[in-house]
Amino acid sequence: MTIRYGINIDVVSSRFDSCPNIEDLYLTPERRSQVSHTETLTMERGIELLGLAVGIGNLRAAALHKRLGYLDTGPGEFGINLGYTDAEGGLQSWEERCGCLIRPLGDYEPH
What we know:
Layout: E1 2-4, H1 10-13, E2 21-23, H2 33-44, E3 49-55, H3 59-67, E4 71-72, E5 78-85, E6 91-104
Parallel strand pairs: 2-3
Antiparallel strand pairs: 1-2, 3-6, 4-6, 5-6
């Protein structure tokens, strides 16, 4: 799991200042406690919001995160460009359509 402090999703950063973003998240059932550990570490740094992008077609992940207290930020779909270098050295890239969820931490009330 990667956490980027200083969110780089334009539709979110225009509404929420200083919101770190969880990236590259895949959790097996035995690793789900890492999300709450990440939230604790984020609060200890004095940050009140934690965001993550969820693929539009990934309904199970969106439902799980909403049960954990993540809220839809409302800006609608946006694209994230992803890529990697394959075993032959070629660049593989694609765009994923996502929605962004925000988790208020501690006593923070989003406005």
